[in-house]
Structure formats: structure tokens, C-alpha cells
Amino acid sequence: MKITKAVIPAAGLGTRILPATKAMPKEMLPIVDKPAIQYIVEEAVESGITDILIITNRGKGVIEDHFDRALSLEDSLRKGEKYELLKSIEHIHKLANIHYIRQIETKGLGHAVSRARTFIGNDPFAVLYGDDVIIGDVPATKELIDAYGTFGKGVLGIKKVDEEAIKKYSSLKVENIHDNIYRCTDMIEKPQKKEDILSLYSILGRCILPAEIFEILDHTAPGAGGEIQLTDAMKELANTVGMTAVEFSGRRYDMGNKLGILEANIEVGLKHPEISEGLKAYIKELSKTL
Ligand code: UTP
Fold it and tell me: How far is the CA of 274 from the centre of ligand 1 (A)?
């Protein structure tokens, strides 16, 4: 079955990067010259997604404005013959059919995804976390969709992280099938005790889920941090029918934390045709003082 629908949860409070996120959604923080969420929408589109539901809340209207057409800005750039700049904005509203729904209360990622039930219907769908940008030669969501095509089970995008990080993310019980493909039979969200860590593999920002996840979310009790965790619902899938995990090839940047934002800007900046030379020279000079 072709996967054409995706959900981007973007209704979190972004408390780890306050005060930047007091009035500005973290999903709109730029990596050089594009907001994080545009990279994510582009990844979805390059993976064959045509319909996207963005889960927002109060104060995130600027996300809708970004994916809307800016006619007067286009006119002004055209009049000023600024065709390169015009090119950089005029395709954004045509990227995909983008829909929005509000999560009235911030009750966790699982709760946010459950808002997508009517939009999704009975089809399997992709989830791209709104603050995880993945940049690579092959779009990460496409790698996961391909694995869904092969194995027909829910798919997790995974990477190995260190022991400090695993406490803040999820930890998975995995068994290698071949190369970067694993079978996942169990998982835990934010393991605090060493004996709870199943492996250093963690879900980082992408998954493909069957529509059955909505029934599971209906009875998923609040977990870590008092929130309804998507990991707790996916654990039920992993324990019963099993899930597939793909160690995606791209580099993932966590736009929900301060260091992640800086790493993304430096690494993307170093490859950006307009600023790479200037940034390289600046870093070389600066590193002499470190
Ligand atoms: P996070 O847990 O990283 O987001 O959720 P957060 O709650 O904003 O983080 P803090 O406050 O800095 O700790 C991962 C993704 O899920 C979305 C977030 O917007 C983010 O893209 N999310 C999280 C929701 O949409 N709703 C929620 O209730 C929680």
C-alpha cells in the first residue's frame, strides 16, 4: 500500500529553549534561511507524501502563514526583479496539501497524534516529529516507507545515542535483520534506571504507523512526565505484532535543544553556497581562540 499521508506534531511548548519559544514556535526556528518545519515538509514530499496534517495549538499560526501564499511579497519581489528570492518562496504553498488541527491541551506526543484519527482513516501513515530535522542524501521517511513495503509492519526511525541521551529519549529492544534493518519487540520511554535500558537505540523523530495505533492510544494511560506517550502505544504494537526499525542514513538535528539548533546551523551553513566560504573562514579564525 502506498503511504501518502503524514502527521507532523508541532504543538509542544518548547520549554527547553525558552525564552526563544515564548512567542515563536520552535518548529519555525531557522536553519540558516529556512524554518525547521519546511525541511520536514520537504522530506515528507520527497518521500512520496501528498497530504500532511500539522498538529498545532494557540500561538502557532505563523506556521500556517509560512505555508500559505504571500501574494503581496511575491508582487514586490517581482517588481524589484528579485527573481532568486521570488523562487525561494513561491513554491512553498504548493509543496503538499497541508491541513491543520489544534491540540487543545498539551497532553503529550501520543495525545497529539490521536488528533489525526479522522484525517488518517484506515491507512498507514508517517509521523515526522516537528522538531527533528534529518538531512541526508536519501529522505529518512522514504527509507522507512520502503521498509514498510518490505515487512508490512509499523516502522521506527532509529539511531544509537549515548547513555546520557537515552534517559531523555526512548530505548528499544532490537535484533538485527540485515544491514541497517532491525526487528523491534519492546521499548521504553525515558528509562531512568540502568537496568531499564533495553539498548542504546532510540526512536529519533520518524515512524510509520498502522491506523490501529488510534485504538491503542484510546487506552494508553499517561506515562513519563504525566504525558500520553506515543512510545507507550507503540510498545503495545512491538509486543504483539512486532515492529521494524530502520537506522536511517541522514544526520538528525534536535531543534528542541540549544546545542542541536547551533549544530544544525553550522553544518548546513558550511554546505550553503552563499555563506560556506565566509563561515569556514570565521570558524577557522575563531577556533584559534578556543
Ligand atoms: P517534545 O517533547 O520534544 O516537545 O515533543 P516539547 O513538549 O515542546 O518539549 P520541551 O517542552 O522542550 O521539553 C516532540 C514533538 O512532539 C510535539 C512537539 O511540538 C515536538 O515537535 N508535541 C509534544 C505535541 O505536538 N504535543 C504535545 O503535547 C507534546
Answer: 32
